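We emphasize that the prediction below concerns an isolated chain of 237 residues; any contacts that depend on oligomerization or on bound cofactors are therefore not represented. The input was used exactly as deposited, without trimming of termini.
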Amino acid sequence: MLRTTSRSRHALLTAAAALLLSGCATVSAGSPAAPGVPSGTAAQDALLKAAEHRLVVDCLDDRGLVLTARPRAPDEEQILQAALFGAGPRELSLTLATGATVTAHSDGCAAAARQRLYGDQRSWFRAQVIVDNLRAEAQYRMRDDPAHRTALARWTRCVTPPDRPRPERPDPDVAARCGRESGLDAVRARLEAAELIAVRALHRDELTTYRQLRDRALLRAVDLSAPPHQQKGTSHP
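Result of the prediction step, given as a token string:
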């Protein structure tokens, strides 16, 4: 399980915290020239999720545990959660440019499934977290741009009622209208596109690692999805 903390109120981070992890839509998925590997990103994601789910189920089965939807007693739930996501201190940790820190266990069946599928869970953890937060980092970087600050000030004035302090959470319809009228939406769209290019260049190595590990995982996922008598029984490099 991934856990995120933040040292900055402005850090715009959404960390993956699910049993089955998928890649970020900002990265074009590779299409390994291998039989059985689908070409579309959505189909590849589904293949990887299915393979990871199968590995998790097999791991739990080895421990005498089963994933079911039935209600469980608190002690049973605690045992299952520990088996799934690990226990004790989180061994994997990465602090992003936004100031947010993402942590995860390296034990547990979810981690074991990622190790089996991607071949190097530590490298995958780092690459996957960075790739999943490219947009958050781009948004974080554009905060200090003069055009953004000016448009944000106009938006703040727009959503603030006369003779009253600005509401902590403006009405969604008012916020949307002010986003258009203040030009903040347009400024953000323009700056985010430019910052994404810069962020992707900064993380070129992580993007390469992400693609390589994902492509290898797709090959392993194809093997896992094949009937037992058709599985190769060997791991891909």
